[in-house]
Write a structure and sequence with these properties.
Blueprint (H helix, E strand, L loop, with lengths): L2 H7 L10 E3 L3 E2 L5 E4 L7 E2 L1 H18 L21 E3 L4 E5 L5 E6 L2 E2 L2 H9 L9 E2 L3 H19 L8 H17 L2 H8 L1 H4 E2 L4 H10 L3 E5 L4 H12 L15 E4 L5 H4 L4 E4 L6 E3 L9 E4 L2 H8 L6 E5 L2 H12 L2 E5 L3 H10 L1 H40 L3 H43 L8 E2 L2 E2 L1 H9 L2 E3 L13 E2 L11
Parallel strand pairs: 3-11, 3-16, 11-12, 12-15, 16-17, 17-20
Antiparallel strand pairs: 1-20, 2-21, 4-10, 5-6, 5-9, 6-7, 7-8, 13-14, 13-15, 18-19
Helix pairs in contact: 2-4, 2-5, 2-6, 4-5, 14-15
The structure holds magnesium ion.
């Protein structure tokens, strides 16, 4: 019996990072098929090793193309960029915005932009997120990190690279694609999977629990067959006494699916020769013995007879995996947000500080309210003074002036208190954010606001969690109930 069942029966409270979070209620009992993305969903990579590889391979191509040899000295710091940021390729800036598209943090290379610069460049005018590039995938992290390193190099070594930031970015894109397509990166991963791929020992248990609950599982990945087979083999073969081959877990295996086009296009499924990795034309029913490439969601639904909300798709890419599958086909969605694994324990440790910040924020709001009341009293009294003066009622005018002075004194007291509270809150938020990530803070928050990333997660992912294996704690018939269908006026 999987350990999860015991846990649930005993009602042992799960740690935060073991939980599945609910944006939109889902009754797992009515889900018949669960699809999984592979990279960064079923398969977690050792990001240090994997992205250093991508960083170095791409840098090599820059230098080969005539960029200064000195670039070779750039240091790779795998945690310097987080998902959800936006890249301003024209100006060479990296931005973190809140859910209202307000730029709260910005860097040019390694230099943090001050509030005034941010206001001038971004916040003074309406924000055009569509002109910016969104850092959605883990693959993009090393790409964007390399960009900021080169921008920093350009800032410190003027005229050594005679290109605009945008041109540098275009080169970067080209070289990254080349590193992926010429196999530089893949070859290394396939040669030493143990160096790059993390085996999650609880994954088999989570998948088996869903299978035992009569769910059909399928794999839908953009990676090609040769790569998929080796990586899946590494994480699942011989990991469970009953299912010794990774293919045993999945009814259908679809590789090279070209998501998000899988959800928008009309490509037919092709059959993959599992020995040669070659594809051939295919028509007819999907059968478990075959491996397919390409295809499209509409045809998938017709061939499998599972439709819309009977299907749940689990992926890590908000755009490629989640937005289209939910928006166009009404598949239910679960987003794997790997960062939660490390952020949630830190947030737990900062709980007391966060409570203090929230209490101070409530106090600040109350003081702000008093300030507004005092301001309107002063304005009203000043108006009355004028009326009294016009009516030559000097006694009343004098009395009112005295009152106004008292209000003004009180106002300045309250304004000072407000500033003090505001500064304390800011200081505490900076301290808090620094413990999460020194440059960018929390993935899901900007100060006290939701980040743009958090807003997308909330909007598009029915469920989200740190890793797929957390599903082992939940029954395949679990009713996940959303707790935040509350509007501001419900609170
Ligand atoms: Mg993925």
């Amino acid at each position: 019996m999987p350990r999860g069942i015991d846990l649930e029966h005993q009602r042992i409270k799960l740690e935060k990072w073991q939980r599945v979070f609910v944006n939109r209620s889902i009754n797992m009992g009515s889900i018949k098929a669960i699809g999984f993305d592979m990279d960064h969903t079923l398969v977690q990579y050792n990001r240090d090793a994997f992205e250093t590889l991508a960083f170095r391979a791409t840098l090599r191509k820059f230098i080969d193309a005539g960029y200064p040899e000195e670039l070779n000295e750039l240091k790779f710091d795998p945690s310097s960029v987080i998902r959800g940021l936006l890249v301003d390729r024209e100006r060479g800036n990296l931005l973190k915005v809140d859910g209202h598209k307000y730029v709260k943090t910005a860097f040019h290379g390694k230099r943090r932009l001050e509030k005034e610069d941010r206001r001038k460049l971004y916040n003074a005018a309406s924000f055009k997120a569509q002109n910016l590039l969104s850092v959605d995938t883990f693959f993009a992290l090393s790409e964007v990190h390399l960009f900021t390193e080169i921008v920093d190099y350009m800032a410190n070594n003027p005229n050594k690279i005679q290109k605009t930031f945008k041109e540098v970015y275009d080169d970067l894109r080209k070289f990254i694609d080349l590193s992926h397509s010429d196999g530089t990166i893949k070859k290394e991963v396939l040669r030493f999977p143990e160096k790059f791929v993390i085996r999650d020992k609880y994954l088999p248990q989570a998948l088996v629990r869903m299978i035992e609950g009569d769910k059909l599982l399928f794999l839908l990945t953009n990676s090609d067959w040769a790569y998929t087979n080796i990586v899946m083999n590494y994480i699942l073969n011989d990991a469970h006494p009953d299912l010794t081959n990774w293919r045993d877990y999945f009814e259908y295996v679809i590789v090279s699916s070209g998501k998000p086009n899988f959800f928008t296009g009309q490509s037919p499924f092709q059959k993959v020769d599992v020995n040669t990795n070659k594809t051939s034309e295919y028509s007819g029913a999907l059968i478990p013995e075959n491996v397919y490439a390409g295809g499209n969601a509409e045809l998938f639904q017709n061939l499998t007879t599972y439709h819309g909300d009977e299907i749940m798709y689990v992926g890590d890419h908000i755009y490629g995996d989640i937005i289209r599958s939910k928006g166009l086909f009404n598949w239910r969605t679960m987003l794997v947000v790997q960062e939660l694994d490390s952020e949630l324990p830190k947030l737990e440790r900062n709980k007391a500080k966060l409570q203090q910040i929230n209490m101070l924020a409530v106090e600040r709001e109350a003081v702000d309210e008093e300030i507004q009341i005092l301001r309107s009293r002063i304005a009203a009294a000043q108006k009355q003074i004028k009326v009294a003066a016009n009516a030559a009622n000097s006694k009343k005018a004098k009395y009112l002036s005295k009152e106004t002075e008292k209000f003004a004194e009180k106002l300045s007291e309250k304004e000072n208190l407000f500033d003090e509270l505001d500064q304390t809150i800011r200081k505490l938020i900076i301290e808090h954010e620094h413990t999460i990530h020194s440059g960018w803070g929390e993935l899901m928050k900007v100060g006290l606001e939701k980040s743009r990333f958090a807003q997308q997660v909330e909007q598009y992912a029915c469920l989200y969690t740190g890793r797929v294996s957390n599903l082992r704690f939940y029954s395949p018939f679990k009713r996940f109930v959303s707790t935040h269908d509350l509007l501001p006026h419900d609170l």
